[in-house]
Amino acid sequence: MIFNQEAVDPAPCRLCGATTFQFCLNAPDFDTGQASFTLCECRSCGLVRIEPLLTEAELSRFYPSVYYGAGQEKFVGPIERLTRWLARQQAHRLLQSLNEGRQPVGPIRILDIGCGRGSLLRAFAQMGGECHGVERADFPDIEPDAGFVLHRQPLADLAFPDGHFDIVVLWHVLEHLADPGTVLTEIHRLLRPGGLLACAVPNFSSWQRRWFGPDWFHLDLPRHVHHFELPTLRHGLEERGFQIVKVETRALDQNLFGFVQSALNRLRRSRPNRLYALLRRPEGFSLDSELAGWLLAAGILSPLAGIEYMLSGLTNQGATVVMQARRC
Ligand SMILES: [Zn+2]
Asked: What Cα–Cα distance (Å) separates residue 209 from each residue in 19, 38, 123, 306?
């Protein structure tokens, strides 16, 4: 099915409410490269979105169970262990930011929206936190002793009181949401004064996006409905009563692989995101000749990815916007 249309839907921007947009680019879908989508940019706030917007039913077709990973693991063994280690490091950093380096007084409450299999919540649970996760209604079951409560319903339907949480996490989630502005407003209500929002999104104004265009790995169409530049996200948060306390565009786990896979996409457009697909296949790790070929190419590209990672981060043009904001 082709979703590409020339007409611009007048539906208001889901961050600022403006109704004028300009064409940005056409790009293929992530999984097959066979469908094409049009991205348009809000002339007022710079938020980029798929145009026309897809319905929930249309989007759900792009979230097969394999998207979340088979069983409890999404990737092959060594990468899975690295993911858990990174989650523990992230939990420690968020706690330090929340308390500005001091030890927390009493257990804290954490809400992870779009928590996936809950790597970060498991890390927080091991520290004694009260942990809640939110996921799509069709998300696979988690094991009963995961250490957190999984809610499979829209955030607006959860009856948490005002100021209930110390930390809310939106880690590579905002770009998936049909209405990111409303969700940010609800998060402001859910956080206690001084509470911390930690969010990360692909950086649409990054060097990688400018260089690779429709081949950029982190476009992830059509699952990424919205696309953020750093000033767009900053302004959207400040308008809703957040104070930005930390901004960076370096994310080791996202940016290096994003460069490599984007370059591979550019070199071989008939097999988009093939290395990523092979690394996360549910039957497990199998070093066949195809995977070996892709890994060899990735190895050759890795030094370039490292250089891009270092230099782009110096001017906040790395591939990921990582932002911490305190609720005023
Ligand atoms: Zn806007």
From this structure: 25, 15, 32, 16
User: What does the DSSP assignment read for 35-65?
Assistant: SEEEEEEETTT--EEESSPPPHHHHHTT--H
SS3 sequence, 69-116?
Answer: CCCCCCCCHHHHHHHHHHHHHHHHHHHHHHCCCCCCCCCCEEEEECCC
Secondary structure of residue 245 in the 3-state scheme: strand
Those residues whose beta carbon sits under 5 angstroms from the ion ligand 1 are 13, 15-16, 18, 42, 44-45, 47
Q: What is the pLDDT of residues 26-56, one digit of tens each?
A: 999 999 999 999 999 999 999 999 999 888 8
Residue 42 CA to ligand 1 centre (angstroms): 5
Give the domains, in start order, of the chain with CATH numbers: 72-201+226-248+322-327 (3.40.50.150)
Across the chain, the runs of DSSP E, i.e. the strands, are 21-28, 36-42, 48-50, 109-113, 130-134, 149-151, 165-171, 191-202, 226-227, 242-248, 320-327
CA of 44 relative to ligand 1 center, distance in Å: 5
Give me 146's structure tokens.
Answer: 């995961």
Residue for token pair 């002339």: 43
Lowest-confidence region among 63-67, 107-111, 136-140, 178-182: 63-67
Instruction: Please say whether the beta carbons of 165 and 155 come within 8 A.
Output: no
What span, in angstroms and rounded, lies between the C-alpha atoms of 287 and 173?
A: 31
Q: What's the gap in Å between 63 CA and the centre of ligand 1?
A: 26
Ligand 1: centre distance to CA 9 (Å) = 14
Calculate how far, in angstroms, residue 232's C-alpha sits from the geometric centre of ligand 1: 8
